[in-house]
Amino acid sequence: MSHMMIRRTSTRSTYQGQQDEETLRQFNIPLTVNDITQSSTEEYNRQLARLTYLTPEQVNIIKDIRRRGKNKVIRFIMIE
Question: Is the pLDDT reported for residue 53 higher than 50?
Answer without folding.
Answer: yes
